Here is the input.
Amino acid sequence: MEYIDFHSHVLPGIDDGSKDPQMSAQMLKTLYSQGVRHSVLSSHFYGRRHSPEEYLKIRQEAFDRLMTVYEPDRMPILHLGAEVALSQHMMKWELSGMKLDGTNIIMLELPGRYEDWIDDIMYEFSVTGYKIMIAHLDRVIDSYPKQKWMKLLDKNFIYQINNDSLSSMKIRKTIEKLAKEGADFVLGSDAHNITDRSPNFDEATTRLKKGGLSDEFADSIERNQGKILRLW
Ligand SMILES: [Fe+2]
Here is the structure.
């Protein structure tokens, strides 16, 4: 199976991810060797730091720098995206440029801790017409009270899971239960560098190949990758 990495900070010099094009190249070669054939470049967007226009300009410049070291035979096909930090002010932003390449999907990063305003913004944003992908749902499950994260779920959302969270029995059990109920999942490395947050598709693919994850979860990954691949 071809894998898509839906979440990465491979673009050089734009956020807390890759430092320079050489590191980006190493990350992409590693992802390719781990079976990833499409990489989404989802650098952080923080509305308090940049306007959407500024971000898109900086992102394009970083992409152009990455292209100087790109080797199509040894690296995944690249797709621009963004990890948009949820904000109380986001309804004022023009976010169409943040959509995942060729789709109507916007990836949202929820705050590290639950806060009361989150429910209202999530609802307001969910009716704007964008398809919402929640970045690393595993982190939300880990850090929010259960009754709070459960209320945030919506059958129209896609949930991105960070590969490293699959080593947690609690996360595996929770996402397998959600997959059984029909939830849509995709995987991401959330790779930032080549040391402590490096490309990590080997663990996820080994678990999937060896049947270490439920059929419903594996089917969900395949189904959702397939849907997006048809758009590419
Ligand atoms: Fe991230």
The first strand starts at residue 3 and ends at 5. The beta strands are 3-5, 36-41, 44-45, 77-80, 83-85, 105-109, 131-134, 158-162, 184-188. DSSP finds eight helices and nine strands in the chain. The CA atoms of residues 72 and 83 lie 24 Å apart.
